[in-house]
Amino acid sequence: MHPCDHEGVSSLGPDQRARYARHLLIPEIGLAGQERLAAAAVLVIGAGGLGSPALTYLAAAGVGRIGIVDDDVVELSNLQRQVIHTTADLGKPKVASAADRLTKINPDLIVEQHRHRLDPDSAWELFARYDVVIDGTDNFPTRYLISDVCAALGVPEVWAAVYRFDAAISVFWRGHGPCYRCVHPQPPAPGAVPSCAEAGVLGALPGVVGAMQAVEAVKILTGAGRPMTGLLNCYDALNGSWRAVEVAPNPNCPACGPQRTIRSRADVAAAQFAQGCATGQPTDAEGDRHSPTEVPIEITVAELDQARADGSLLVDVRTPAETALGTIDGSILIPLAELPERLSELPPDRPIITYCAVGARSLVAVEIISTTGRTARSLAGGIAAWDNRPRA
């Protein structure tokens, strides 16, 4: 059964058939799929760089009800990438600006504005009313909150992230593939990963993956094709290349595993607090693949020199082109896309430390390496943190 199979869906009228004519010609969508879209409800968290294209294409596609969550107002610096807003919208709430644009695109659309920050209670109430949730946020506490609530409710989540010229996208859906916690068991240390406001982002980049988020939502709602579950697709805009990394569910995941402990809104709130998402301080979460007495999954720049002196091998999982921007002395290069086939090159008797641009891909690398029983850690903040380390 599709997430939006509701009773009482009527056939499209003549104007709607004309509007969606190009969809009706596609065998995988057709009239039945378009009616599913009309009956569907999608919640988009964030009306920013990712939310702008996702919202626009969902409205144009004929999704019947769209919710927008954002507590911010439109600022001049947003307009470089948040194309749903205009200069005339400066100072307006983003939810209102976005809603105005969407209803102009599609007058049949019902837009629900939620101008507030998410917390476990509000997220639980909201998510239960939607068929798909799209994560267009830019901070780790909210990402974990979205994933935990979606996993608990069984709602599919379409996630994406951008940084400078890099982007990643996946679909997290309990019972169909891993959740966000499976791929990222714990958040990086506060300040380890610079935000887009600190590091920058290519303006068109969120448009690429934000539009793909809309594609994935449409696929889920209509049943067309295969959702991007179990795949982490990474885009390198500098090289114009994509790489797909297979990611498996963590059987011990507290959010989506067989013995999951995050099942209710109270559990979600407790998980946020326990993991440091409520306070900004990272701690071990129940169900992570390591306990507080084991080696943590991340290592800080300050700890790196001692770890190397103790025999750890540093593995750069970026693309070869990225190494032109600089490397860390003594590291070996094994691009993330090649890592599953090159695991035999890693010495079994040496701890492994992985690094990438900002620490996201290297966490995926740790997950891949850990399947072999080796000890591996990710450099928090990646080479960006290394380049910005204090120097004597």
How many helices in DSSP terms? 14
Give the class from helix and strand content and strand pairing. Answer: alpha/beta
Mean pLDDT metric: 87
What is the string of SSEs from the N terminus onward? HHHEHEHEHEHEEHHHEEHEHEEEHEH
Q: In which range does the helix fraction lie? A: 25-40%
3D shape: globular
Uncertain runs are 278-295
In order across it, which strands form the biggest sheet? 3-2-1-4-5-6-7-8
Biggest β-sheet, characterized?
8 strands, mixed
Structural Rg: 21 Å
The number of strands is 13
Describe the structure.
It is a single chain. The protein is 32% helix and 16% strand. The protein is α/β, with parallel strands linked by helices. Strand 1, helix 4 (51-61) and strand 2 (65-69) form a beta-alpha-beta unit. The chain is globular and about 70 Å long. The termini are far apart.
